[in-house]
Write a sequence for this structure.
């Protein structure tokens, strides 16, 4: 995850909780109660991500008694809560028993909640069995957001993700076997022009093997500067221009063979808005990308001033 693939909540909605800011959540969780069960990210080494680099975002799990008190505060507020998102960026690193206890607290105090979701680093599922994940699912955890970023091992090494094609696939397979839905994020432009093809092709191959429920793509950007990110590329990196981003998207879509994955490339960082179900909408989406490549003046594209995080 990074600034450009999450929504910053600098002033956190109407819920009367004391958050350690900044706090991030997926765009689709805008109606959810953000329950901060950890602070920061236990890995926090990805070179593209500046989300948890502030001094007050050092990783630390929150004590269960504090979480319960926060839930009681929400109950007392009488504000409606239908969904809960477990923040920060690394809630799934908590041990199975701690996660189970948190979900039981949510069921106890907010029985009306219909969905609990969380970010998930693939490595965090290494110490959890499919059976344990299935139990968490039965207690309400029904969706995980996985920032795979790429399916290419060279790109993953350069960005210090600490993951690989195989580790990402193993986690996504576990999630599916447990009956939990997965929402995967891939970052366009992550390998620069030199690694454009292999980044797109291997990311598609990872998705083909995993068949996630949701897939989104966002354009990598560096609001705090790209020096930290580019250092591992030894001068080989530059950000892709608009046409190169479209070419990478065309390669990704061409290589994807998905059955019924909901696809979104509509984040504010994208020049071209794409929405559909893969595979039935694959050709229509490819046609739109090809038109953006060959006739950019004939298709609505975001202007630079319209793009953002």
């Amino acid at each position: 995850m990074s600034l450009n693939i999450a929504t910053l909540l600098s002033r956190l909605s109407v819920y009367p909780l004391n958050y350690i800011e900044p706090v991030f959540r997926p765009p689709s969780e805008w109606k959810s109660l953000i329950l901060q069960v950890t602070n920061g990210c236990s890995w926090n080494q990805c070179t593209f991500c500046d989300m948890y680099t502030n001094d007050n975002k050092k990783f630390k799990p929150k004590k269960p008694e504090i979480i319960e008190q926060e839930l009681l505060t929400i109950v007392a507020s009488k504000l409606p809560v239908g969904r809960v998102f477990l923040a920060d960026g690394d809630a799934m690193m908590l041990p199975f028993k701690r996660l189970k206890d948190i979900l039981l607290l949510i069921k106890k105090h907010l029985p009306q909640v219909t969905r609990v979701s969380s970010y998930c680093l693939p490595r965090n599922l290494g110490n959890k069995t499919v059976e344990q994940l299935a139990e968490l699912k039965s207690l309400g955890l029904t969706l995980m957001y996985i920032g795979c970023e790429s399916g290419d091992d060279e790109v993953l090494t350069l960005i210090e993700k600490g993951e690989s094609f195989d580790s990402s696939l193993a986690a996504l397979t576990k999630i599916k076997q447990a009956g939990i839905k997965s929402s995967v994020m891939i970052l366009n432009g992550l390998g620069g022009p030199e690694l454009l093809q292999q980044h797109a092709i291997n990311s598609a191959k990872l998705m083909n093997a995993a068949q996630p429920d949701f897939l989104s793509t966002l354009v990598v950007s560096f609001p705090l500067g790209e020096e930290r990110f580019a250092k591992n590329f030894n001068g080989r990196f530059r950000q892709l221009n608009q046409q190169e981003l479209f070419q990478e998207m065309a390669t990704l879509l061409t290589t994807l063979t998905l059955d019924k994955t909901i696809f979104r490339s509509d984040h504010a960082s994208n020049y071209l808005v794409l929405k559909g179900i893969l595979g039935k909408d694959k050709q229509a989406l490819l046609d739109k990308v090809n038109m953006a490549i060959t006739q950019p003046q004939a298709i609505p594209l975001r202007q630079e001033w319209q793009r953002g995080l």
Observations:
- Residues 1-12 have pLDDT under 50 and may be disordered.
